Every structure is written in structure tokens, then in C-alpha cells.
Amino acid sequence: MNPSRRRFGSVLLLLLFATLPGLAAEPAVISVLRADKARLAAMMAGDGEALGRLLSDQLRFVHSDGRVESKADYVKNLMAGDTAYADARTSGIETTQVSADVVVILGAQEMRKRLGPDWSTIKLRYLAVWRNENGAWRMVAWQSARPAGSSVVPPKP
Does a structural domain hold residue 90? Predict the structure, then answer.
């Protein structure tokens, strides 16, 4: 496995290490995972102001159905009141720090989502790109997909 790629368990150890007294800076991956956790909490709370602080002005948000939204559209649509999220659980987290200021998260999420009056459970695989913007980590890109089942790549002859 690429040394810059970490499993979530390793990240928890880094988190513990980063909280020890005397350490000057938190590792980028830990900062991004904290920011992503705050993003998910803001999403479930319907807190557009908090989301606005966590999302880059250059955000491109690709939904699992292929729709693409800007930061302004994403926050506006969430705040319109016809969409809500609950019981979000994230798993299978892998991170890659591609530069000092860019971290990519690959993971899975399961949550309940309300569209209009109807709630459903959704399962997603996602890729999120976070960038350090003047000292604040902000999500600049998101793409999610609903796993279709057992996609198999045929063996090569």
C-alpha cells in the first residue's frame, strides 16, 4: 500500500499522538478527517452557515444520480427544507495526502435521506477532495455513487 495512504485505524493512532502536549501542528490528514466529520454533522443538522465554512467556493458536488452543484446551489438546496439527512455512518475510510495542501478521502456512507416527505436509506461510495485554503481545510470536490452490486472485471488472457 502507498505510504501516503492510511487506514482509519492508523489515523486514530495519529489523532491520539496529535493530541499529546508539545506538538506544534496537527497532521493534515487528521485535520481533514476532523473537518469532514464537522461537514457531516452540519449536513445532518441542516446548518448552512457551518457548511459554508467547510466548503470551498470552488466546490463541485457530484451527486450519486449525476447532478452537479456548486457550493451556492448545494447549500441553497439543503436549506430549502425538502432534503434532510439522518443517522449517517461512514466506514472504509482511506486517505491519500497528494500534496501538503491536498488530501483525498475515499470511503463509504450509509444514511437516511429525506426527499420531500419520503425517507429512504442510501448507501454510497464516495471520493472527497479537501484543500488547505489559507489555513482552513475546505472540501473542493465530492463525487458519490450508489454501488450497483457485483460488478466484475473479466480476467485478462
Answer: yes
